[in-house]
Amino acid sequence: MPERRAKSLSLGADLAVDPRHGRIAEEIRSRTEGRGADAVLVAVPLPAALTDALAVARPGGRILLFAQNDPQMRIEFPAAAVGVAERNLEVTAPRWTARKRRTAYFFAPIAGARTGLSSISLEDMNQALELAAHPISDSLKVVVQP
User: Fold this and answer.
1) Side-chain half-sphere of 142: how many Cα atoms within 13 Å?
2) Which H/E stretch holds residue 100?
3) From CA 146, how far away is CA 86, in angstroms rounded?
4) pLDDT at res. 110
5) Buried b (16+ CB within 10 A) or exposed e, 20-34
C-alpha cells in the first residue's frame, strides 16, 4: 500500500519499497556502500520478498518476516543465505499477538515516533475488528487495550 510506505518513511524508516518493482538490492547496496542493510522488515506476503531480503541484508543482519500468515504460501531459500552469512531470520505475527520483545528489536528506530491515534469504546469492538481484518489506507495497527 503506497500510503503505508509513505507513513513508514514519515516515521523514520530509511527506505520503503514496493517489492514488485525490483531493483531493491541495487538501491540498498548504493545506500550502504555495498555493505547491506542492518535490518530488513518483510511486511508483504510475497515469497520473492524474502529472496530480496536475504540479498540485501548484511552478514550478521536481521530479517523479520512480519505477519506472513497465508496458509497456502510456501517460501524457499538457500540455507547458506542464513547459516553461512549468519543472518538472523525471524518469523512473527505481531498483528495477532503481542510479542513486544521480539518485534521491538526491529522497530526501535521508530518506537518514539508520534503517530495519529484514534480511540473507540469497547462497545465498538466490532468496528476495531473489522478495521483489523480490512485495513484502509490511513490505518496502520489496531490495538485493543481494555
Assistant:
1) 17
2) helix 100-107
3) 41
4) 44
5) eeeebbeebeeeeee
C-alpha cell at 31: 545506500
Q: What is the DSSP-derived secondary structure letter of residue 84? A: T
Top-level class of domain 2-114: alpha beta
Contact 68, 41 (CB under 8 A): no
Does the reported pTM lie above 0.90?
no
Distance of CA 5 to the CA centre of its chain: 10
pLDDT tens digits, one per residue of 92-106: 655 545 455 555 555
Burial (CB count <10 Å: 0-12, 13-18, 19+), residue 101: exposed
Which is it for the CA torsion 27, 141, 1, 21, positive or negative?
positive
- 15, HSE (Cβ side, Cα atoms, 13 Å): 21
Strand pairing partners for 66?
A: 92
pLDDT of 117 strictly over 60:
no
The C-alpha torsion from 54 through 4 and 95 to 123, rounded to 10°, is 180
Q: Name the more confident of 139 and 16.
A: 16
